[in-house]
Design goal:
The chain is mostly helical and 145 residues long. It is built from three helices and no strands. The longest helix is centred in the first third of the chain and has 56 residues. The protein starts with 16 loop residues before the first helix and ends in a 6-residue tail after the last helix.
């Protein structure tokens, strides 16, 4: 079957030179803008991370300011000295209640040699025990193989 041709019209190529140039320009623009676009997206993520860190730091600063304000109150300081350091006011008789030792079948909690739990002992007693333990650990001779 023969193709019909319209007289006066020549066969046109699919891509003209203008279309080819336009495609090349668009491809080069995409190639040129890909890296900056990727950098922009990465920087936006970093900015969001830094903002989250800054918010967290602000919250910590607020908490520390509240704690500092509490420590400025003399009554709070007295209460903490009584609780943590076992201090007492003049004329008072301080005492520490000790729980009875556990029965034979019960699980025993961490305690010192006197049967007191470590939490009920004053802080300086635990500190001195750790100094003694560190001293004996260093003074012990190395085991021979």
């Amino acid at each position: 079957m023969a193709k019909w041709r319209i007289p006066g019209l020549a066969a046109r190529p699919r891509f003209t030179s203008r279309a080819t140039v336009l495609v090349l320009v668009l491809c080069s623009l995409v190639a040129i803008l890909a890296y900056p676009a990727r950098q922009y997206i990465a920087q936006r993520g970093e900015i969001a991370d830094q903002r989250a860190k800054a918010d967290h730091a602000r919250q910590q600063v607020d908490e520390l300011r509240r704690a500092k304000a509490r420590w400025q109150d003399p009554e709070f300081v007295k209460a903490q000295a009584r609780e943590r350091l076992h201090y007492a006011l003049p004329g008072e008789t301080p005492f520490v209640s000790v729980a009875p030792p556990p029965a034979q079948g019960e699980k025993q909690s961490a305690s010192d040699g006197a049967g007191r739990t470590k939490a009920a002992r004053p802080w300086y007693s635990g500190f001195w025990d750790s100094v003694d333990a560190a001293d004996t650990a260093i003074a012990a001779p190395p085991a021979a193989h």
